[in-house]
Amino acid sequence: MRLARATLALMFAATTALATPSADLDKGREAYRTKDWDSAFKTINSLVHPRRELARVEDTWEAYVLVGASLYHLGRRNEAVEEFKLALELDLERTITTSFHSQDVVQLFEDIKARVKAELELKQLQREQTERERRYREYLDTVGVFETNNYGVNFVPFGAGQFQNKQRTKGYILGSAQILTGGTSVVTFIYLAGKYGLSSSQVPLTDGPRVRQIQQLEIGTGFAFIGLYLYGVIDAMVNYKSQRRIKGDDSLIPIELIDPSKPPPPKPKKTSLRDRLRIGPMVTPAGVGIGLGWEND
Fold it and tell me: Which CATH number fits domain 2-122: 3.90.190.10, 3.90.226.10, 1.25.40.10, 3.40.30.10?
């Protein structure tokens, strides 16, 4: 009895040793050929899920295809699509034919292949666009234009110095305040001069208190304008820079970074006499001299 058990154990071990992944693939392939979809699926599916058991990439690709085709015939189309995608991740160029698969399976596989190729092309375009945008931003950060500022603008009222220093908010505030105070002072002066003249002796006694109030407004707003003007000058001088780097714009970007499909612009033709004329030393058997030449297009 013990001898029989030992013999059975050895036979089972020998059978297990012969059941290699390649042998299971052959078994599953035969089941698929005889249209035993369920057996083909169960046999081959274990070779790629949950992990790949086959050593050769070609066998793994075939296993995914056979699993997908079996699932399709079992009515599980969505799962079949995912298996086909796994096969195409291994090799996007291989194909299947109707010599071993049904026309519906071949058509589905080709449709999935076309879709995967389109998705890969789109991702490639997106990567290229992302890389182009990255280079574009880097280029803008490295180039720029230096504008020269005029020191005399610091003494111009109404926030001119602040605008030159790119302090626009401060410039608007100072400009508005100076216009309000200076304008009020000038208008009140013109009003008094026009009605009573430049001499206070022409002001009637009854209008004296009112005129005095208007004069106080004129003087007060005048001093306020002067104070704002002096503050603006000092502030502009403190923040003044003789040159200021401004960020580059599209006009400074090479055309190949903006649109790689466009060739770089041609070099401008030489039209002036100075550009076309060529003068250089000339050595001849008779001596040394100066050569004069003319460059054509």
Answer: 1.25.40.10
Which among 88, 70, 90 has a CA at the least distance from the CA of 80?
70
Residues contacting 22, CB < 8 A, separation 6+: 54, 59
Q: How many helices (H) and strands (E) does the chain have?
A: 11, 4
Q: For 89-146, what is each residue's pLDDT tens digit?
A: 999 999 999 999 999 999 999 999 999 999 999 999 999 989 988 887 777 667 666 7
Q: Given its phi and psi angles, is residue 38 left (phi above 0), alpha (psi -120 to 50 degrees) or beta?
A: alpha
Tokens of 74: 């079992």
Task: Say which amino acid occupies 256.
Answer: E
Separation of alpha carbons 62 and 42, rounded Å: 15
DSSP β-bridge partners for residue 284: 287
Burial class (CB in 10 A: 0-12, 13-18, 19+), 83: buried
C-alpha distances in Å from residue 177, one per residue of 168, 183, 260: 14, 10, 51
Determine how many CB atoms are found less than 10 A away from the CB of residue 289: 10
Give the pTM.
0.47
